[in-house]
Design brief:
Blueprint (H helix, E strand, L loop, with lengths): L11 H4 L8 E4 L2 E4 L5 H18 L5 E4 L3 E3 L9 E2 L3 E4 L10 E3 L4 E5 L5 H15 L3 E6 L4 E8 L2 E7 L4 E3 L7 E3 H4 L3
Parallel strand pairs: 4-7, 8-9
Antiparallel strand pairs: 1-2, 3-6, 4-5, 6-8, 9-10, 10-11, 12-13
């Protein structure tokens, strides 16, 4: 990666000094450049955001869309800064610094892109699990599916949903996402 030394582990303090015009994630101290999302990706994100926002109106939780930084381990290492497509945060203290979500959000949604698919399914999956993210959805625009990972006893249990399904949001009692609307042409 241009300008980065492969042997160096970077932290959030380093991350803050980087060019804001280029988006990065930091996973285990390694920077990963983010590409701009495609049209289908943006449509899916917007449609999910609308459904979550409509449900959350007048409720204490909030939904945010990218770009928003999540500092998964905001401690002495502070070497995991991710930027998922959508997050739900129910604890306002996690947003207190006004710059990032500090600690695990209640829900994370990643929409797969060719350049980030492996990272979302493996690296970030493991970081979200370690950080204790209660609900992690992986949305696949190619096959119009959602894998909903729900944290139970320190492990994710997964349930797969197709484009005609309605998916319950476990961290938001009574909330569902209609995939027929999310994946509509």
């Amino acid at each position: 990666m241009d300008g980065f030394r492969q042997e160096k582990r970077y932290t959030y303090a380093d991350y803050l000094t980087w060019n804001e015009d280029v988006r990065y994630e930091l996973i285990d101290g390694v920077p990963y450049m983010l590409a701009a999302p495609g049209i289908a990706h943006q449509r899916i994100s917007r449609r999910m955001l609308w459904q979550l926002e409509n449900f959350l109106r007048d409720k204490p939780c909030e939904v945010f869309d990218a770009p928003i930084d999540i500092r998964l381990n905001a401690d002495e290492d502070d070497d995991n800064v991710v930027e998922p497509d959508l997050i739900v945060v129910c604890d306002p203290s996690k947003l207190a610094d006004g710059k990032a979500c500090i600690g695990a959000p209640d829900m994370v949604i990643e929409i797969l892109s060719p350049s980030t698919s492996a990272r979302d399914k493996v690296l970030k999956f493991n970081r979200y699990l370690q950080a204790g993210v209660p609900e992690y959805w992986i949305v696949n625009p190619e096959d119009k599916t959602v894998s909903a990972n729900i944290l139970k006893n320190g492990e994710y249990t997964v349930k797969a949903y197709g484009e005609q399904d309605t998916v319950p949001v476990h961290v938001l009692d009574g909330c569902t996402i209609g995939l027929q609307d999310v994946f509509a042409e």
